[in-house]
Amino acid sequence: MITLTDNAVAAVKSALARASEPAEGFRIMVQAGGCAGFKYVMGLESISREGDFIIEKDGVKVFVDAGSQPHAAGMTVDFVTGPEPSGFVFDNPNAREKCACGKSCG
Rounded to an integer, what distance in angstroms lies between the CA atom of residue 86 and that of residue 71? Predict the structure, then answer.
């Protein structure tokens, strides 16, 4: 199960409202790489695909493909703002290590 913070939900809702194409939610894909073993690919998504796991929070849908599901289990997705660039941060208990950036590791 992936957990979305309230900040992440608000950021996705904002992106959906600004999207040039209609979208139902967003897709998260977990791939090998990054400084701690995982990197994350996100994008707006309009439909589910076969094998997708779909999570919904406050009207925001998250689509996770079958290959990413084992790597995303237990992950928390947040959206942070601050002196450094704003963006999504992934806290993933499946990552081998932690890193300082929070963007590509977990």
Answer: 24
Rounded Cα distance, 85 and 23, in Å: 25
Per the structure, how many domains does the chain have? 1
The token duo for 59 is 């009207």
b/e burial code for range 19-52 (CB count within 10 A of at least 16 → b): eeeebbbbbbbbeeebebbbbbeeebbeebeeeb
Measure the CA dihedral 94/98/99/103, to 10°: 30
Mean of the per-residue pLDDT values of the chain: 85
CATH label of the domain that carries residue 9: 2.60.300.12
pLDDT of residue 105: 45
Q: Where residue 12 falls among pLDDT bands split at 50, 70, 90?
A: very high
Residue that is written with structure tokens 């950021």 in the block:
11
Domain that holds residue 61: 3-91
Residue 54 lies in a domain: yes
